[in-house]
């Protein structure tokens, strides 16, 4: 069966034999987004891209990763227009700001004052991130592609069975996706595949962590590390997702 273009990334992620194919896709997607924002295509010089980054901004994690990416001039251009928009909005917020007053009862009980419009404005700024938002859109498409392949391609199902499973974070997304994409009969068969797969691979990683600790016993100093050298990094990934073992890109 000929592979469709949109199916290639998901098949590549399964074939990569990572602890979680969705973590693999997340890393690759972030690399591509960082390259789009700051790379040689110089999209930061395009007014429509800067309009989007000015509107969404960047979260604390991606702001730091953008700096680590290494394009200081590109970051400077992005910050240039973002700051101007931010300052203009801030001036308007300050003009209309009125401190909230506590009632006598609230002062006595120490109850916090209700959120002010200014704190809500700041909070809204921290809820959006250009890279996070685009990553979420990509992730939803990957979930849909996963179940599309699961239903149409028996070979894909076999690859899942022999994979290392999923991190707990993305496994939760798969459970939600199963409710949307599969009927009752299909969900039953899917659960019979992924539940044993998850238990088997959680136990595998747990065993690797156990041996990682045991290896520090002087009695085991000459023993083989087996698969445990990166057990802590993989153990962290298996619980929360992400890719703690290596940075997603090299500093430039």
SSE arrangement:
Elements: H1 8-15, H2 21-38, H3 47-56, H4 60-69, H5 72-96, H6 104-109, H7 117-125, H8 130-152, H9 154-161, H10 168-181, H11 184-214, H12 231-240
Helix pairs in contact: 1-2, 2-8, 3-5, 8-10, 11-12
Describe the structure.
By secondary structure, the chain is mainly α. Mean pLDDT is 88; it is low at 244-252. The protein has twelve helices and no strands. It starts with 7 loop residues before the first helix and ends in a 12-residue tail after the last helix.
Summarize the structure.
The chain is mostly helical. It is built from twelve helices and no strands.
Helix fraction?
A: 55-70%
Indicate the low-confidence ranges by residue numbers. Answer: 244-252
- Secondary-structure element order, N to C: HHHHHHHHHHHH
Query: Mean pLDDT, nearest integer?
Result: 88
- How far do the termini sit from each other? 41 Å
Radius of gyration: 24 Å
Main sheet, how many strands, which sense, barrel? none
Record field, number of beta strands: 0
Proportion of residues in β-strands = under 5%
**What's the tally of helices?**
12
General shape: globular
Structural class: mainly alpha
